[in-house]
Amino acid sequence: MTLFEQMGGTPVLNKTVTLFYQNVVTDPKISHLFPEDITPVMEKQAQFLTQFLGGPPLYTSVHGHPRMRARHLPFEITRERADAWLSCMRRALEQTVPDASLRDSILERLSSSAYFFVNTEG
Q1: Topology adopted by domain 8-116
Q2: DSSP state at residue 98
Q3: Residues 6+ apart with CB under 8 A from 117
Q4: What angle do helix axes 79-96 and 9-24 make, rounded to 10 degrees?
């Protein structure tokens, strides 16, 4: 069973993305990196996370190859900002995924990507 299935599929993932972005827009370390209209970003994030966690390839079917590092290069991403992003996601998962070991598995998978996007010292 995939992480996507274990967490509860689309309904839980979508709720997680909603809560995650509620955290992001109030986080002083990363909120300025996101557009005022966060809705399109949320939609892409839900598509990407569905695919990334083992669900259907929604992101690729709509947008092509994710090329996530390239898509994040225009933004100054420091280790501190990656930590803030992961903290926002951790808090969202705590509200949507009751199983602590499953949350840890999801965060571990996301951590490798978050730190891969770091492109600026600071």
Answers
A1: Globin-like (1.10.490)
A2: -
A3: 68, 69, 72, 77, 82
A4: 130
- The structure tokens listed for 4 are 């996507």
Does residue 100 carry a pLDDT above 90? yes
- Rounded CA-CA distance 122/97 in Å is 32
Query: What's the whole-number mean pLDDT along residues 23-48?
Result: 96
CB 62 within 8 A of CB 47: yes
d(CA 102, CA 71): 28
pLDDT over 70 (residue 66)? no
- What local confidence, expressed as pLDDT, does residue 69 receive? 66
Average pLDDT of the residues in 32-58: 95
The structural domains of the chain, with segments of one domain joined by +, span 8-116
| Contacts with 36 (C-beta within 8 Å, 6 or more apart), sequence order | none
Are the C-beta atoms of residues 119 and 30 closer than 8 Å to each other? no
Given a cut of 70, whether residue 73 has pLDDT beyond it is no
- Which residue has better confidence, 75 or 102? 102
Hey, what are 23's tokens?
């955290």
